[in-house]
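Let's practice the habit of predicting before peeking. Look at the sequence and jot down your guess about where helices and strands might fall. Then scroll down.
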Amino acid sequence: MKKITGVAATAAMLIALTGCAAGGDGGNGTDGGGDGDIVVGFSQVGAESGWRTANTIDVKAAFEEAGIELKFSDAQQKQENQIKAIRSYIQQQVDVIAFSPVVESGWDTVLKEAKDAGIPVVLTDRAVDSADTSLYVSFLGSDFIVEGERAGEWVKTEYADADKVNIVELQGTTGAAPANDRAEGLRNVIGDDPKFDIIASQTGDFTRAGGKQVMEAFLKSNPDIDLVYSHNDDMGLGAIEAIEAAGMVPGVDIKIVTVDAVKDGMQALADGKINFIVECSPLLGAQLVDVVKKVVAGETVEKRILTDETTFTQEQAIEALPDRKY
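Done guessing? Here is the structure:
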């Protein structure tokens, strides 16, 4: 099926709504506008964490269940790989492009190419900082600033009677939306209170190995650490290894708050090695399928679609673990 633009593209979407559009699989000669005729190109950040792996599994399963063809690419945490994948999807004339941006900036050119080709783009999990919001039809994912604020509220409550709190921050990938926003969210809550001192902040690139390496460096240069704020569970789990190797007890000698709530993180929380987790659900597949169907059918979708999430204490983690899907 050849991609068309402008008024013709709008007409094509209206035809699809009646179930009479040609297949979106490159013109295989099949009739009808069923889900099996839709082709989606999806560019994933990589496999840097348990969260990302769970997200990939969920997205693939949701599209398979819906009978929608999914062309999948792993960017290995490199923006140039994602740009290359998106251009490949444009060349293949897919019906919808979805991707989770490695970083926020630098997408205008390739997204303009998709728009000019008449291919709608859906952002998943992470945002872009483009001033031209017409370059994508919807952004599906969490509010990372709110996640940081939830972590900050726990910190304020936990240390309500403390005189001084030394915090080290394990940041996510430099320039990534969750890293920027989770840092901002925490500071929104504790920033005006002089007793909270973020004494060190460095990227661990959302990986367990990175979290361990950075935490080892923090421990050598900052002997008096009260709290670790980790932008995801995996870096927090790496920090646990470093703290234990230094002869201290994670969750007691140094408290830890993380974001994600994947199984390994939840188990560490249940074991008392992490003290609090803010949930960021990776299970976006079903919502993404719904958005894709509506876009192909020419229906209006919300520009910003949030996921439902919560927070966990040790007791809540113990209760939730037996039925945890990720």
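How did you do? The longest strand covers residues 196-203.
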